[in-house]
Amino acid sequence: MPPLPHRALRALDRFNAAHPWDHNAHYHRWILRRLPRRFGSALDVGSGSGDLARLLATRAEQVAGVDADPAITARARTLTPGTAPVTYEVAEAPAGLPAGPHDVITCIAVLHHLPFAEALTAFRDRLAPGGTLVVVGLYRPRTVTDHLLGAVASPLNAATGWLKNRGRAAPRPTSMTARTRPADMPFTDIAREARTILPGARLRRRLLWRYTLTWRRRND
Asked: pTM of the prediction?
């Protein structure tokens, strides 16, 4: 599939800006399907406005959300009912992460902001035996496969934005207003380093410029 012309890409960019939707929330239900029905402690790294943390709380006894942005963390506290077993902390990952151990650790669209190997090592060390790590991350397109997926994702992204907003222009979701920067690691490098730190980790390219990583710690 040939790349879209620059004029078409610019038009798609303008349309997407007017019809935004949360690409990260798109993966929330997928994440839940990778987790046990009930578990003890969960850690959500880069918790943002708390959408995923609140979903995890429907299965967990306790959820800790950690984010470096004080404003969006305050927003998460406001949006979370006082009865929910969720606490939020402003801290820089990976150094400021709670010690654990945690039965579940999740991280969506944050890992490319962090020192990759150091962050994965911190997740591994804080995961309880038998626990599950789920990452949804961003990667830099480099291979033909990467660019083909991007070409497919561009019109799909526009169509989804139109449907979710019923064709009307809409404000950006709260969880998309945090600071972002482009990913700089290609998927092949991500997969190689991840499997060195997390033997047996499963990684897969996804649509919408994402990849997924799942890893279960052995019951040593």
From this structure: 0.78
